[in-house]
Amino acid sequence: MATPHVWYQLHLHGSQISTHRWRGAALLALFPLLLASPALGQRRKGDIDRNRKGHIQGITVANLSNYNERFYRPGLTIAPTFSRFFLEQSGAYLPAAQQGRGLAANAIISPGFGVGFVNDIRLGDPSTPFHLRFVPGIAFLTRRVEFTSAGAGQPDTIRTQEVGTTQLEFPLLLKYQSDRRRNTRVYMIAGIKPSLAVAQRQNTPTINQIGIIRNDLLLEYGFGLDLFYPYFKFGPELRFSHGLRNILDPRNNRYSGSLQSLRTNTVTLYLNIE
């Protein structure tokens, strides 16, 4: 009985041995790439932008992806401000105007500037849309009132009075934010802002004959946009403020005497960096 040669028993022909070796080498070469493929996928993790034909135009990477997990978020804000008084004239204005001795008042919008520190606290788990914000700061405001007087047979005379103050502000606000859309998010904000005038500038007595009391309380509301960058979040925010108190400090002069009340109205653009 013929015994098959071990060469043919195991089918170890030369061409097959070379083929097996090539396949084994190829698998060994592909093995590190197979292990690395999940890591490569994580590096490119993000939203894929495609055109109408389905072609990839770009990949948007989510910046600060763990931002919502932070319970407390500090920051800085810079605030250019436009402010004016909401005024009411005294009851003596109308009889004086009928006699040609009236002093009409008109509030003028004036620019200002402020800086503050953002303290943002999450109210609940990371998915909650509500945040509490405390933003103490300092503001430098100059608000003007233009007075127009006319005598019998004489042209109108216009004089401007101004109230320049340095104020400490303590806004306490509730923020309601939308779901994050890639690296942007919109929000609404509202609350109250107590303020304290620590200094009132009266360098020129002839144009500083109106005074205000130091304490004020304002109602604030507005909206903003969160823009996420790799190392910080930038949030432009537009906020409106309305004073709830009459802050007029009566003085014995014709300008102060022609007014019944002064309340503050302010529009502020907050540039938040967190």
Can you characterise this structure?
With 274 residues, the chain is an alpha+beta fold. The chain has a single domain (67-273), classed as Porin, CATH 2.40.160.20. It contains 4 helices and 15 strands. It has helices spanning 6-9, 14-43, 93-98, 254-257; strands at 47-50, 56-60, 72-89, 103-108, 110-122, 130-134, 137-149, 157-169, 172-177, 184-201, 211-212, 215-228, 233-243, 248-249, 259-273. The protein is elongated, with a radius of gyration of 35 Å.
CATH architecture: Beta Barrel
SSE order, as H and E? HHEEEHEEEEEEEEEEEHE
Largest sheet: 11 strands, antiparallel
Q: What global shape is seen?
A: elongated
CATH class assignment: Mainly Beta
What Rg, in angstroms, do the CA atoms define? 35 Å
| Helix content, binned percent | 10-25%
What's the number of domains? 1
CATH fold call: Porin
The quaternary organization reads as single chain
Taking the alpha carbons of the first and last residues, their distance comes to 90 Å
Q: Pick out the low-confidence regions.
A: 1-45
DSSP, total strands: 15
